[in-house]
Write a structure and sequence with these properties.
The complex is a heterodimer of chains A (135) and B (632).
Chain A (H helix, E strand, L loop, with lengths): L1 H12 L7 H13 L16 H15 L4 H12 L11 H29 L15
Helix pairs in contact in A: 2-3
Chain B lengths: L1 H23 L3 H27 L6 H6 L6 H6 L5 H22 L5 H25 L23 H29 L5 H32 L10 H26 L3 H24 L12 H25 L14 H31 L8 H6 L1 H15 L12 H23 L3 H28 L7 H25 L2 E7 L4 E4 L2 E12 L4 E11 L2 E5 L2 E5 L4 E5 L1 E4 L3 E12 L5 E11 L2 H18 L10
Antiparallel strand pairs in B: 1-10, 2-3, 3-4, 4-5, 4-6, 6-7, 8-9, 9-10
Helix pairs in contact in B: 1-2, 1-6, 2-5, 2-6, 5-6, 5-7, 6-7, 6-11, 7-8, 7-10, 8-9, 8-18, 9-10, 9-12, 10-11, 12-14, 14-16, 15-16, 16-17, 17-18
Classes of the chains: A mainly alpha (135), B alpha+beta (632).
Pfam family, one (chain A): CcmH
Function (chain A): Possible subunit of a heme lyase.
Keywords (chain A): Cytochrome c-type biogenesis, Heme, Iron, Membrane, Metal-binding, Signal, Transmembrane, Transmembrane helix
Amino acid sequence: MKLILASLLFLFAAEGQLADPDQEARAQDLMREIRCVACENEPISNSGSDIAADMRERVRTMIADGASDDEVRDWFSERYGEFVLFRPSSKGFDGLLLWGLPFILLVGGAALILAVRSRKASDANAIKPVPPEDV
Amino acid sequence: MIEAGHFAAILALVFSAVQAFTGLRGNRGQSGLFAQLAFAAMVFAFFTLLWAFARSDFSVQLVAANSHTLKPFVYKLAGTWGNHEGSMALWCVVGLGFGAAGAWLLKSDRPVFEARALGVQGILSLSSLLYLLLASSPFTRLDPAPLQGQGLNPLLQDPALAIHPPMLYLGYVGYSFVFALAAAGLIEKRVDRQWAKTARPWALAAFVPLSLGIALGSYWAYYELGWGGWWFWDPVENASLMPWLIGAALMHSIIVTEKRGSFAAWTSLLAVLAFCFSLLGAFLVRSGVLTSVHAFAVDPLRGSFLLGGLLVLGGSALLLFALRAPKLKGGPDWLATSREGALMGNNLILTVATATVLLGTLFPLIAEAAGQTISVGEPYFNLTFTPIMALALLALPVVQAWAWGKADLSSLWKWAGGFAGLVALFWLAGIGPFDIPLMAGIGLALGVWLILGAGQEMWRRAKSLGRLPKMPLRVWGMTLAHAGLGLFVIGAVLQTSGRTQTTLALEAGESANIAGWTVTLEDVRSIEGPNWYADRAHLIATKPGTKAELNPQKRYYPAARMPTTETAIHKTGTADLYVALGDGRRAAGGPTRWTFEVFVNPLIDFIYVGVILIGLGGALAMFDRRGSGKVS
């Protein structure tokens, strides 16, 4: 009886969480990447504003109705503009540049270092290793 | 009094000009003397500001705009730098302080080099004083003086945030002296082992307070903003992270220059860039080009002044670099698989990570200029910055034993096996009771890997030295810093993937469950403080064997017309139970329901303890006796 009462209270108390824990986890992940449109630089997961609560509810409803993560993202970006997504799109030249540049720099930098090293490479056997005595 | 301060600041400007002139001409004695005079004058100028804030002298415009008689005394004082003009005055004090410290502490056998460094520092001091006096003077009077001030941003009335800016500035402005040393080394064409030995403690002297300053800001954001997290990839946070990352790269690269004489050009470039990123941060925060939770004192004119300064100072330093870098001598030859190669890899990763943060921070601005509004937030950095940094963490324990010149690779497979074993362990644990996702398992394994690796390296060195007390301070510093990094990683991974978050709506007497806790709202009362009033909730949280009382508040500061969140945090040793009070809402005729954001954050203290250890490690390395003087 106590247990039933406790779970009833829980249902009342927590903001309409989804019954399915997997769906709820997906919804919470999405809430962390959707920007509250009334606040400064806050995801809706954190914001206490009314609109963020409405947006959270919207995410949960869509997930419960079987929408995929991308469908939820698309719905929000169509309604509020791309601004609302903290995970910017990787489509188009801009998207490729934004997402690709860090890795291009890393691979390019490594290749450059190795290329310069091999050009300068003298006889490996002639190099005498010196143990690091302190740092 | 404030006029005397204004005069002293002008005097400091004149002294800095003389310091720059005599220094660049190579007169070590005179330049050092004027550096110290300038510092003394600026300290006096700053003191008059502190005095005006302490006495709530509202005839000073800055005090009237940022203080209030009802404010607690310590926050009246902290209010001095809790605004744009005052914080620029603090910036000048710190910058001139580094010049004076340099004049006092630099004792190499290269007086001309030292003079040039003081000269460049003089130019930097001069620029910051010009900016202070021309574009953001704190010494303006208000006539007639108002009877009451307009208060200080209540978010800033907090102990952590009172010392956060001075710490951060010690870091940012500390890099100005590193910049000066690099410029002087380039002018003299002597960025060599002796140069690195001289410059290294200064690079650490900036890195340590910057680390602690960022940690303080992050801790403040955690308990004050009520968002439950510790890092939000907010543009202003990113602005402080970039100089820190470059500073971390510099700290490693300068070791190669000190020990081997290699990387001279690269090290001097990083030394220049660290301060450029500090200036860029100041520009991004102060110009208003960014929307952020804490961009304050937003003014486009000041922005263009800062941007101009950044371009002129950074540009001339890079020009100097381009002219002189080819003339710098390198060290002995090395293979890619060597200590040099490993540290080069460290530097590549840290600079690419910096570039990633820069890209993510500036991209929305560039897009906006092109007519698009987009946001770049946590998901972007988690998928770019994090895996790139993870590479460095993965390699660290393996390569830290590598020798200069050429490494012995015969034990590499043991390391691979060790790490695979760790991941497998965490993954298996995930199938069992803890339910850890694979990525989090890898992250936790990385953290443990770093701590074990730091211990293993200490052990290896202790064996080769014979006994532990002989270990140089800088090795202790390295061990502490790397172990601290491991703790940080564990805390960050757990906080990201192991925390529980719920929004509760409770009326008095109701309970709810979260992560094993039963939280009951007893009541919500109105209370009053010296310059605020608040709703204070009284909650009782119970868990088998434990009971905690939590009193989160929602405060309202009438003078600033602004609400703040005072979170309640109960620490259990393994987790924080964290409650932030939201709004109360009354249904027609019914009782008021209050919303609460409730988080259970596992081991979040690891994040802060980790960063403190990194700072402590840096401090130990800085105080190593052999860190100064001549090359052995």
